[in-house]
Design goal:
Elements: H1 2-27, H2 45-64, H3 75-78, H4 88-91, H5 95-114, H6 118-121, H7 130-157, E1 176-179, E2 182-186, E3 201-205, E4 208-211, H8 217-225, H9 237-246, E5 254-257, E6 260-265, E7 268-271, H10 283-293, H11 300-308, E8 319-325, E9 349-353, E10 370-373, E11 381-382, E12 386-387
Parallel strand pairs: 8-11
Antiparallel strand pairs: 1-4, 2-3, 4-12, 5-6, 6-7, 8-9, 9-10
Helix pairs in contact: 1-2, 1-5, 1-7, 2-5, 2-7, 9-10
């Protein structure tokens, strides 16, 4: 029992760190920026902080303890399916009120977790610290998204900027690892794993090759300079339609400065590192780069098996698009509620693996599955090549 409590205490401390990170992000900003929606696909920073505090309180108090005194009037504000993104700026509390409320709620919840009543300990969601792990990971995901919001904010703040070095194109690079055909174990059965990672199961892998490293900024520039955004033969029909509609010609956070390029991060403009993973591209752009390079995107199972074996380098610089759509594993069971993953098994969402510079440790695991629709490029996403 003492050993289990030590694990629980560490998790409570980790959740407290998440709380502080969210408070710090919002507390550093001018009051008006907390309620601003900087991108159509992103909620205001203040909404994310309030949502995390609400979700934590909803599960701990309304679901586990049956007490909705705090949450009953907030469902229409902080449940995403009950409140469209465009409506959220008007619903966000002012910065000081928001910080005060979330800080108080966080403190109360941490106290409750440290000294739970017996009937709370016995709730099925509390077993093996499942709910605590779920809340930590949920917070980590929103903290990453808050950094995406900060990057969009920086785009509005950043005027002309001159990089310290000039990015030059590089060859695509063909250093790859052979993946022999055979059975591989996919997924995770640990209590902390999300429902879409479960159950762990065996899958047959065809032989092929996968790149040692993700596509770099210098390699992506070579694609751009070779007319990658102008050559329809490189794009799928859906991808070309998307390109004609958006008329983009570079990754989402890249900006030109004279003969060179730089990127805008959550912390401001910076040089593009030639050997760092390219990011800020959608599935269609990743797919077009593969066609240009004579390659393909890896299936997520190829990616996971290679990552499990320690064969992939430079993972975690950018989420990496995979070839397949988000789907349930054989024997999938929804948890902690029916609609957590199930609505997104719609053949419209692609899978991304690995993590980004903004991804925190609780969700940096080889089995973790990120997912977005194929057109999304506000995320820190890139690609890795594969070949049959």
């Amino acid at each position: 029992m003492a050993e289990r409590w030590l694990g629980t205490a560490r998790r409570i401390a980790e959740l407290a760190k998440m709380h502080q990170r969210g408070q710090d992000i919002v507390g550093r900003l001018p009051a008006e920026d907390v309620r601003t929606q900087y991108h159509n696909d992103l909620s205001p920073l203040g909404w994310h902080l309030g949502h995390c505090a609400f979700i934590e309180t909803y599960w701990l108090r309304e679901v586990v303890l049956g007490n909705n005194a705090i949450t009953a009037t907030l469902h229409g504000v902080y449940f995403p399916d009950l409140c469209e993104k465009a409506a959220r700026p008007e619903l966000v509390r002012g910065r000081e009120r928001l910080l005060e409320w979330t800080s108080a709620v966080h403190k109360e919840n941490l106290t409750l977790l440290a000294n739970p009543p017996d009937h709370m300990r016995q709730h099925r969601l509390m077993g093996a610290d499942y709910l605590l792990d779920f809340l930590i990971q949920h917070y980590a995901q929103h903290l990453e998204t808050m950094h995406y919001v900060l990057a969009q904010r920086q785009l509005r703040l950043t005027g002309p900027w001159t990089p310290n070095s000039t990015l030059t194109p590089a060859s695509r690079g063909d250093e790859a690892i052979h993946l022999p055909a055979g059975p591989v174990k996919i997924g995770c059965d640990e209590p902390y794993a999300y429902d879409n990672e479960q159950p762990r199961h065996e899958n047959w892998r065809a032989s092929g090759r996968i790149a040692v490293r993700p596509v770099t900024s210098a390699q992506y520039l070579a694609f751009m300079e070779d007319g990658g955004y102008r050559r329809s033969e490189l794009w799928s029909e859906a991808g070309w339609a998307w390109l004609c509609h958006t008329r983009v010609d570079c990754p989402a956070l890249w900006r030109r400065s004279g003969p060179s390029w730089y990127e805008v991060s959550a912390f401001g403009p910076r040089d593009l590192e030639p050997s760092a993973a390219a990011s800020g591209i959608c599935f269609y752009e990743a797919e077009a780069f593969c066609h240009w390079a004579g390659a393909k995107l890896p299936h997520e199972f190829e990616w996971e098996a290679a990552a499990q074996a320690g064969l992939l380098q430079d993972t975690g610089q950018a989420w990496e698009w995979c070839a397949n759509r988000f789907h349930p594993y054989p024997g999938f069971r929804p948890l902690p509620y029916e609609g957590y993953s199930s609505p997104w098994f719609d053949n419209q969402h692609g899978v991304l693996r690995g993590g980004s510079e903004y991804t925190l440790a609780p969700i940096r695991r080889t089995s973790f599955r990120n997912f977005y629709t194929l057109d999304k490029r506000h995320i820190c996403a890139g690609l890795r090549l594969a070949w049959d």
